Amino acid sequence: MKTNSKDSVSHTFGPIFDENSRYLILGSMPSVKSRDMGFYYMHKQNRFWKVLSAVFNDDFEGNIEDKKAKLLKHNIALYDVIESCKIIGSSDVSIKDVVPANKTIDEIIKNSKIEKIILNGSKAAKLFDKFFKYDGIDVLYMPSTSPANAKMNLEILVKSWINIK
User: Cα(49)–Cα(34) distance, rounded to whole angstroms?
Assistant: First the structure.
């Protein structure tokens, strides 16, 4: 996969949720590493799994199946606001020509008990505000767990994210 030019990229793996999911965490678009590995937040320096481990006092590390099981154990659904877009590498700043993930997010909400939507980072928040509206569901805007958000260390991220529960 080229990462120097603006490539058209589609979301290539499905959402994680079940009928008991109460929290829906939405990012923008999976990173190159996540797209290559076929699962969310797989860049080693992304703090997402460490933040969830601290917030829910449980170990979210491990292989993909372990991560899926922990998400469902804690009633967490996971997807992204973008179904496809043009992007340079993993750079949220470069995202253009967004096709929002309305159909998938609607499916998650229809087939679960979502009470809160948690947006991971400013790009996810901006796009959610532009393309989505769900009455009766709280929306929380959280700082990005991405390594690009270097100004926030793990401790600060955990203090912010603890509010999702």
Answer: 13
Q: Which two tokens stand for residue 84?
A: 């496809």
CA dihedral 86→91→92→97, nearest 10 degrees, is -10
Dist. CA 46–CA 51, nearest whole Å: 10
Instruction: Give the closest residue to 76 by CA, choosing from 121, 130, 136, 140.
Output: 140
Q: Against a cut of 0.90, is the pTM above it?
A: yes
Instruction: For residues 64 and 163, give the distance between their C-alpha atoms in angstroms, rounded to a whole number.
Output: 25
Task: For 110-120, write each residue's pLDDT tens digit.
Answer: 999 999 999 99
Nearest one of 113, 31, 15 to 71, comparing CA atoms: 15
Contact (Cβ atoms closer than 8 angstroms) between residue 3 and residue 87: no
Asked whether 56 and 71 are in contact (CB, 8 A), the reply is: no
